Amino acid sequence: MHALRTYDYAVVRVVPRVERGEFVNAGIILSCDVARILQAAVELDEKALLSLDSRVDLSLVRSALQTIPAICAGGEAAGEIGKMSARERFHWLVAPRSTIVQTSPVHSGQCADPAAALEHLMRSMVRR
User: Fold this and answer.
1) pLDDT value of position 121
2) pLDDT digits 0-9 by tens, 79-102
3) N or C: which end of the chain has fewer CB within 10 A?
4) Residue 68's domain spans which residues?
5) 91: burial class by Cβ within 10 Å (0-12, 13-18, 19+)?
6) In this structure, what are the phi and psi dihedrals at residue 43, rounded to the nearest 5 degrees?
7) Domains held by the chain: number
8) For residue 82, what are the contacts with CB-CB under 8 A and spacing of at least 6?
9) Over the range 50-80, which residues count as b (16 or more CB within 10 Å of their CB) and which as e?
10) Which of 60, 55, 61, 59 is nearest to 24 (CA)?
11) What is the pLDDT of residues 8-27, one digit of tens each?
């Protein structure tokens, strides 16, 4: 039996009109320090987003969402942020913002397999 590991996660939300506070869950950012994992999965339901705001700039949203997994991976492709430690990148990603792409408060959990936990969170929080 694998030992349980504590992880932190946040739900990635797309808020097309910040003043209305409506959003579509579009992904998960998961950090497990013990396993040295920082991963993100992103799947945007564009139809649901367009139902909230038919004029939303989908190319802008797609571009912003694509940066999240790149920042999680780190390295040169993530620019200056990619030079930070995984934990610092996690905190940078989940810092409160009032932009079109936001994250939920950070939550914690325990799992034996962080990749399976990420998939479970995607199924339960993001996919319709």
Assistant:
1) 98
2) 999 999 999 999 999 999 888 999
3) N
4) 5-126
5) middle
6) -145, 105
7) 1
8) 70, 71, 73, 74, 75, 76, 89
9) eeebeebeeeebeebbebbbebbebeeebee
10) 61
11) 999 999 999 999 999 999 99
